[in-house]
Design goal:
- With 346 residues, the chain is of the alpha+beta class.
- It contains five helices and nine strands; from the N terminus they run ααααβββββαββββ.
- The strands form two sheets. Strands 1, 2, 3, 4 and 5 form a five-stranded antiparallel β-sheet that branches. The chain has a four-stranded antiparallel β-sheet with strand order 6-7-8-9, covered by helices on one side.
- Strand 7 and strand 8 form a beta hairpin.
- The longest helix has 48 residues, at 29-76.
- The radius of gyration is 49 Å and the shape is flat.
- It starts with a helix and ends with a strand.
Length: 346
């Protein structure tokens, strides 16, 4: 026992030295750099993905917009004017023509309903649009022509037609019957009469406005047509006179006038193939007219060649009816001869 106590006592006296912390710190810079570059790489990758996604999204939007634009274009093309005119070529006679009989009036009503837009108002036979009470005559269409078209929107338009129709009115009146010459006793008798019908016909021209609605290639009259006075389309429009340069008066005036007379004589009477040596783009009147005279000529000298303004009087070969034209020529010299580079009607 004593031996164990001794050993224990000695063991307790032995001091185990503590581990000293190394004065050198561990190097974490590589780990930090790796983290930083990883973060930067992630940001770059995310940025690239964002850009690609944005481009792809914009491309998709562009495709979608293009498809929508195509659809809008198709919608804009739904109102076909030729087809609408074809539709109205049946409606106008149906609407204008009125015959004063019950059977004709009823037939007109049924025919008109087929042209009108499908609505409660126009499918009602009691609609005032179909009623023709107390009429005293007939109306007969003589002619019609398209005057103007005003687009209200892509599916609706107002078609205006110049229409001429005849109003036919029947009058009844009593007329005396001519009597044969008999004895004097017949002079005391009252003259006999009979009822005859006289017809009065007058023409009238008005503007008929018809609202039309379309759905694809199908059409309907969308409202009550109405008449108005045909407006005049004549106007006083002043033309700005072009200021021309001072007229050339040099020694080439006479040769130019000689050339012009020769050219227009041949231009009136010969086929265009014969004028190939006189003008760059040959054309002619091919014998329909003949030259009467050059009523005026204004020559302007240019850096190369001459600009010629000329008024030419032609006459019809068969009728001698005058035909006056104003022309502008670009005249050049080729190998000593005059040549027309361009010719324009003014």
């Amino acid at each position: 026992m004593n031996i164990f106590k001794r050993i224990k006592g000695r063991t307790q006296k032995i001091k185990i030295p503590q581990k000293r912390k190394s004065p050198m710190k561990k190097d974490h810079s590589k780990r930090t750099a790796l983290g930083v570059w990883s973060l930067l790489g992630s940001i770059v990758v995310l940025s690239i993905l964002t850009i690609l996604l944005s481009v792809n999204t914009r491309s998709g939007l562009n495709i979608t917009n293009a498809m929508l634009n195509e659809k809008e274009t198709e919608v804009k093309e739904t109102m076909s004017q030729p087809l609408a005119e074809q539709f109205l070529s049946g409606f106008i006679p149906t609407y204008i023509n009125v015959t004063n009989t019950n059977e004709a009036i009823e037939k007109r009503k049924q025919n008109l309903k087929e042209y009108m837009i499908y609505s409660e108002a126009f499918q009602n036979e009691r609609n005032e649009f179909y009623q023709l009470s107390d009429i005293q005559g007939d109306r007969v269409l003589k002619s019609y022509s398209l005057f103007n078209v005003t687009k209200e929107d892509e599916e609706e338009a107002l078609f205006e037609y110049k229409v001429t129709f005849m109003n036919r009115i029947h009058h009844e009146k009593e007329v005396e019957i001519e009597q044969e010459e008999n004895d004097d006793d017949d002079e005391d008798k009252e003259p006999e009469t009979e009822t005859v019908t006289e017809t009065e016909e007058t023409d009238q021209t008005l503007l008929l406005s018809i609202p039309v609605q379309s759905l694809g290639n199908q059409f309907a009259v969308s409202g009550v047509p109405y008449f108005s006075e045909v407006p005049t389309v004549k106007g006083v429009i002043e033309k700005e006179e072009e200021e021309r340069a001072e007229a050339y008066t040099g020694e080439e005036v006479e040769p130019i006038n000689t050339f012009l007379n020769t050219f227009f004589t041949r231009y009136a009477s010969e086929p265009k193939e014969e004028l190939a040596y006189m003008m760059k783009e040959p054309t002619s009147l091919n014998g329909a007219f003949e030259l009467d005279e050059l009523t005026s000529t204004h020559i302007v000298e240019q850096e190369e060649g001459y600009q010629v303004f000329v008024t030419v009087l032609f006459r019809g070969v068969e009728t001698n009816i005058p035909h006056v034209v104003n022309m502008e020529l670009d005249l050049q010299r080729h190998e000593g001869n005059f040549f027309i580079e361009t010719m324009q009607y003014q």
